Amino acid sequence: GNSVTQMEGPVTLSEEAFLTINCTYTATGYPSLFWYVQYPGEGLQLLLKATKADDKGSNKGFEATYRKETTSFHLEKGSVQVSDSAVYFCALSEMDGGSQGNLIFGKGTKLSVKP
Amino acid sequence: GAGVSQSPRYKVAKRGQDVALRCDPISGHVSLFWYQQALGQGPEFLTYFQNEAQLDKSGLPSDRFFAERPEGSVSTLKIQRTQQEDSAVYLCASSPERTSGIFTDTQYFGPGTRLTVL
Fold first, then answer.
1. Where are the alpha helices (DSSP H) in A4-88?
2. How far apart are CA A109 and CA B116, in angstroms?
3. More reliable by pLDDT, B106 or A97
């Protein structure tokens, strides 16, 4: 079945450090890929998405590229801020094969950024 | 505009009690999803509605879980005879419309209901 694996946290970085959170997936078809973010005390928010191979999603300085050959969708940011402290979830969604498009999530990676 | 809202935000139940969790999706959104998020885990799919039709309930963990969306807007997730393992955050998400092919609609999540079963 479909699944998402992302690096375990917590990840602790100093402000302005480079961030990478690894995400790989297993899917039978051609999924769309997402990164969601959950700030403390808030609900899940879509951070970025990519719907086909080689697409790059970007938002708020974060980027992720859909790599079909490595089945990966790693999240990167060149310079993190304290306000980026949150839990980040990688997810996939498939519309074919009878799927209704429900999201399949990784376990989440908690990021803490220190000033 | 208003986002997805859920109520109550927190619910404490004694084992064996029945609970009802409400979701108000974004107005006009056709699709509605329920997810369960255990502590320290990612959300897991429970069930899906397209308007009032429940098209997928494959993620419901037992027959104690029941969901409805009778008028195609507000949805209620009901858990009968709650057990300790039901303790989790229950998330509701809505999206505008189903599409085919490789395009997938963004899902908009509510803040969740944290259920604690004692």
1. none
2. 24
3. B106
Instruction: State the nearest Cα–Cα gap between B78 and chain A, in angstroms.
Output: 20
Mean of pLDDT over chain B: 91
User: Would you call A103 an interface residue with chain B, using a CB distance cutoff of 8 Å?
Assistant: yes
| Per-residue pLDDT reduced to its tens digit, B81-102 | 999 999 999 999 998 865 554 4
pLDDT in tens, A28-41: 888 889 999 999 88
pLDDT band at A102 (very low <50, low <70, confident <90, very high): confident
The burial of B20, by beta-carbon neighbours within 10 Å (0-12 exposed, 13-18 middle, 19 or more buried), is given as middle
Query: Which residues in chain B have Cβ-Cβ distances shorter than 8 Å to A29?
Result: none
Find, in chain B, the residue whose alpha carbon is nearest to that of A34.
Answer: B106
By CB atoms closer than 10 A (0-12, 13-18, 19+), residue A85 is middle
Nearest Cα of chain B lies from the Cα of A2 at a distance, in angstroms, of 12
Q: Do B31 and A106 touch (CB under 8 A)?
A: no
Cβ neighbours around A100 below 10 Å, total: 18
Q: Rounded to whole angstroms, how far apart are CA atoms B106 and B97?
A: 10
A42 pLDDT tier (thresholds 50, 70, 90):
confident
